[in-house]
Amino acid sequence: MLVRDIHHDAVVQALTADGWIITDDPLRLAYGRRDVYVDLAAELPIAAERDGQRIAVEVKSFSGASNIRELELAVGRFVVYREILARMDAQRQLYLAVTIGIYETLFHEPIGQLMIETQALKLLVFDPVIGRISRWIR
């Protein structure tokens, strides 16, 4: 059984409020004999401003004892999922969903900036209290 991140529902709410349609919850990626699961997949309707855009979203709360350990796990998953998507569904863009608080602390520190730059992290920054997207870091 897959365990959902504590902010999973807030990200679904934020994406829906922004006009996205959730298409998979979770998105199963089969590669070889292995399956991995990205938390969400979504797309914008054709009539939307960014029509037809498709994304996959990995939700990460950073609720463990060490934010650095959580960053290691999140970046590792992001890289694995991104590479599989590049081969299976190259039009779908992968995002790591993080709270405003984590973005404004960890991702503003040199180690967070290094990961954004060198690993080409795309972030979906959301407010977990109101369930809204704060910004997209592409």
3D architecture notes:
- This protein has 138 residues and is an alpha/beta fold.
- It has a single domain, classed as 3-Layer(aba) Sandwich (Trna Endonuclease, Chain: A, domain 1), CATH 3.40.1350.
- It is 33% helix and 31% strand.
- The chain has helices spanning 8-17, 67-88, 100-104, 110-118, and strands at residues 21-24, 27-31, 34-38, 40-43, 54-59, 92-99, 123-127, 132-137.
- The strands form 2 sheets. It has a 6-stranded mixed beta sheet. Strands 2-3 form a two-stranded antiparallel ribbon.
- The longest helix is centred in the middle third of the chain and has 22 residues, at 67-88.
- The radius of gyration is 14 Å and the shape is globular.
- The protein starts with 7 loop residues before the first helix and ends with a strand.
Question: What is the gist of this entry?
Answer:
The protein has 138 residues and is of the alpha/beta class. The protein is 33% helix and 31% strand.
Question: Which characteristics define this entry?
Answer:
single chain, 138 residues, alpha/beta, six-stranded mixed β-sheet, two-stranded antiparallel ribbon, 8 strands
